[in-house]
Structures are given as structure tokens and as C-alpha cells.
Amino acid sequence: MTSDNSKNSTVSGMSSEEEAKLTVLRDGIDDIDKKIALLINNRAQLAQEVAAVKHQFKSDDEPVVFYRPEREAQVLRKIMDLNEGPLNDEEMARLFREIMSACLALERPVSVAYLGPEGTFTQQAALKHFGHSARTSSMPAIDDVFREVESGSVNYGVVPVENSTEGVINHTLDNFMTSGLKICGEVELRIHQNLMVSDVTKIDSITRVYSHAQSLAQCRKWLDAYYPHVERVAVNSNSEAARRIKGEWNSAAIAGELAAHQYGLHILNEKIEDQPDNSTRFLIIGSEPVPISGDDKTSIMVAMKNQPGALHSLLQPFHQHNIDLTRIETRPSKTGAWNYVFFIDFNGHISDYSVKEALKVIDLHAADVKVLGSYPRAVL
């Protein structure tokens, strides 16, 4: 003889009432999934029609431009403005980035070179900006990324330019002195460092930690507290650190989550960076100028004449035209000793009236002014 409770239970252990409610909800999810799939394919078909129109009206002497940074930024901002939750804005934008990446690949996949090797934060930045449908290739040095884009072997490049903890990456700035490439976009990536080990590591016998010099610096206090006597070995990249420990039983590595997946490592301690808001800014470099998106930044390089008041002459026009400077860096000029070049980022687009007027004044006092690019401010 069975009780009423057993009659109301199912094989799965749920009551019949619970299972009935879940069935209704799951049927609703299935129905929405069907509609989403249909709408995504409708969007993809429109993307193909856009490509056909571009081919139809292209000039004979100009290549067809499929990827439009300003258009993608506008779409992502609109999606974030429309978002009512429960997904947060960043997650919603990430999903739409992948949809746009897949749709763009139907027109023509974007080819992107990044500072490698695989598993680095720069690869993570490339995927964040272009989505996983882009064709990415790793380069051994920043110079090589610039060279690949300049030669036309790839459409775009991704290079790091500054870290909130360790400062500017000078080698990236130096490349702009001789390159004719434009800055087409930026990516801001939250940097989480992780201590990881391999399947052969004896955790109680770790005597060496590998990582890039900047990552070791970003985790200095944590290492002092938890591994004060462990040797810290700087290598060319965090991916190199992750690769090395695969065959060393007494070693660990500090790297990002992507490197752990790439090399099959186990994360022993998460988010060990000393500064919780540690982030790195990356630049997207290409050959074409970017039209105004509505929320833009501009980067310029200025060589000032060696005379009293030169710095004041450089900064005053920005103040007069109410232009917000976001960064200014100084690098030694390659043209002579004790001459310096200023790298300046500010809010606004080169086509803005106030920006044009400010640069006119600066040009009167400067030995050289080079606009590196106007581009959408980082959306995510």
C-alpha cells in the first residue's frame, strides 16, 4: 500500500506539481530559443545583403570595407541602453559582440594579429573586441604586429599600451613614431592574475614561480605574503610561463585564465593581483581612419620646439576649447638628444570643431603634429 506522498512524487524525486511547473517554464524557454535562432539567422541574412550592396557600389580602385568600428560601437551602446536586465550591460554586450562577429564572418572574416603567444592577455583583448569568429594570429613582438598590418597581411593588430599598475608600454608608443598606421579602437581589459600548477607539480615543494615581469610586479605583495622564499623568474610572456611548468614538478606560473585553459593547468589561487582594479588598455591598429561614432577619443603625437613655455603652449589650447585630456606621456625623440615627443589622448573626434581649432593653435607652436587616430571609446 502506497502513501499519498509517494503518489505525488516522480521518479526524479520531484513532486508532480513541481515537475508540471518546470515543464511549462522549459517549454517557454524552448519556444524563445526557436525565435532567437530565427532572428539571428535573419540578422545574418541582412549582413550578407549589406555585403552585396557594398560590392555593387564599390569603386574599382578601393577595397570594400566590411568592418566598421564606429558602427559596431554604436550598436553595442544601443544594446546596453535598451537592456533592462537581469543580464548586466557587459554580459549583454558580450553576447551581441559574438553575434556581430559571426555575422561579419559571413561577409568576410576579420584577420587580426596580436602580441602573442597564445594564451596571453592580448589574445584575450583581441577576442573581446573582435569576437571568436575573427581570424587571429599571434606575433612574437609588438614590432611584428605593426609590420603585419602595414604589409596588409592582416586587417588589424592588437597591442598593449598601458597598465593601471605598471604604467605605459613604451615600445608600443615608440612604434607610432615611424609607423603610418592609425589607431582604430581601444580595449580595456580587467587583468586577473592566477597562480597555476600542472599535473606534475608537487604543491608543497614549489621553489620557483614563472611569469612576465609586469605580472610578477603586479603580484609582488601577494607573493611576499604567501611565497616569500620562492624564486621569481621573469620570462617573455605569461604563456611561456604556463608552458614551462608542464615539465617541472617544483614550479608554478602566474598567468590569466586563458593560459590555464590553453595549457591544461590547474588554478591554485585566483585573483592574486595586488590591486583589485588592475586593468590594461590595448589599442586596435589599422590602416583606415574611423568616422565619428558619437563617443570618441583621439590620440596625437606632438614634437615641440625646444623653447621656454613649450609645454604651456601645448596644453593651453585644450583648456581654451574645453577638451578633456585623458593621458599625456613623454618619450625621447629619435631625432636628437634631449628632444621629446608628447603622446596625448583626449575625448573627442578629429572632425569636431573644437578639436580642429585646438590643433590649429598647437600646430603653430609645434615642430610636428601627427594625428594617430580618432576612434570609439571602449564600450566594455
UniProtKB/TrEMBL annotation:
InterPro entries: ACT-like_dom_sf, ACT_dom, Chor_mutase/pphenate_deHydtase, Chorismate_II_sf, CM_dom_sf, CM_II_prokaryot, G/b/e-P-prot_chorismate_mutase, Preph_deHydtase. The keyword Lyase applies. SUPFAM superfamilies: ACT-like, Chorismate mutase II, Periplasmic binding protein-like II. It is found in: Cytoplasm. Its EC number is 4.2.1.51, 5.4.99.5. Residues 299-376 form the ACT domain. Signal peptide: none annotated. Residues 29-56 form a coiled coil. Transmembrane segments: none annotated. Residues 16-111 form the Chorismate mutase domain. Residues 111-287 form the Prephenate dehydratase domain. Keywords: Amino-acid biosynthesis, Aromatic amino acid biosynthesis, Coiled coil, Cytoplasm, Isomerase, Lyase, Multifunctional enzyme, Phenylalanine biosynthesis. The keyword Cytoplasm applies. PANTHER family: PREPHENATE DEHYDRATASE P PROTEIN (PTHR21022), PREPHENATE DEHYDRATASE-RELATED (PTHR21022:SF19). Catalyzes the Claisen rearrangement of chorismate to prephenate and the decarboxylation/dehydration of prephenate to phenylpyruvate. This is Bifunctional chorismate mutase/prephenate dehydratase. It comes from Sessilibacter corallicola.
